[in-house]
Amino acid sequence: MTNPHDTASPAATQVSVDTRKLALASWVTQHTPAAQYPIVLQSLGSDAGFRRYFRYQNPSQWLAVDAPPTTEDTPQFLAIAHLIEQQAVRSPRIAAVDAVQGFLLVEDFGDRLLFREANAENADSLYQQALDTLLQLHRCPDDPALIPRYDRALLRRELEIFSEWFAEKLLGHALDTTEKKLLDGWFTQLEDNALAQPQTFVHRDYHSRNLMLLDDGSLGVIDFQGALWGGVTYDLVSLLRDCYLRWPTQQVTRWALDYRAQAIAAGIIPAVSDAEFLRWFDWLGLQRHIKVLGIFARLSLRDGKTGYLNDLPLVIRYTLEVAGQYPELRAFADWFTQTLLPLAQQQFWYRDYQTAGNQSAGDQ
What we know:
Blueprint: H1 14-31, E1 42-46, E2 52-55, E3 62-66, H2 74-85, E4 94-98, E5 103-107, H3 114-117, H4 123-138, H5 152-170, H6 177-196, E6 199-202, E7 211-213, E8 219-221, E9 228-231, H7 234-240, H8 249-265, H9 274-301, H10 312-323, H11 330-344, H12 358-361
Helix pairs in contact: 4-8, 5-6, 5-9, 6-9, 7-9, 8-9, 9-10, 10-11
């Protein structure tokens, strides 16, 4: 769920990782005639999946990518890269690929993440650029053979990650029959909202760590290989209620409604009211944040990527703020606050969720 510069691979896979790294270095040598020898791969870490990224010369034009075929779908990555390139969206060019081994040479976009570059002074300009790029992505034609459906079954599987990995495995709370029934009802409402809004291309992780400022002033998009066809507000809320970077509430609302106006003008969505659009936005964002609580817990407990736990308080904040605004979901917020929050407060990673993210974007 994030980009190559953020987190290291689990120690448990180190033996196989080293073997693949040697094979990748050999493969890179074959495809980089002008490189200095011997090629030394310098790790940039891994993303939330099992792809790993390496630089191997300076100045660098290409990244070497290890995408193990047992866990990563390189043909899908290539197909989605081609699709979004057709929409004039800047994604890394691909110099060489071996889909059987899971090795790639892709364009090095550098290190200027939106996450690092955005501040109160330049946010409006940078986020308008991100919204313009999102509009381009939302113009992608539907191709059911290429882009999986973000259907009810998948939405439910994602929400159940929260139940298993956040509530039960991270916090140690065994859900009883009554709680499971209540969650089923709340989850169904969130699924209904996601399926009722217009369906478009969904990047799935369109946020400040997957958007990069390039030397030519354009915005580069990475980590798109998990794309789906689903609710139009999914990527919008991923961007504006970012799990790593919080912006003031009024600013987020203004940006969201600006996008609504542009999407209506472009024919991407019908002329819905501000209130209906914000409900789409809030509820699909809540689905995402509930899922992310489970995913971040799983990344730590299963994959050894404990750094994601530090981002849980901000995700809790989004979850409780949105659920508490709607009468239909207030019972979920109350249950979470009374049952799960006391357990979270005992965790080493916990900090006051009510102020989480304030320091990053000056929220009030």
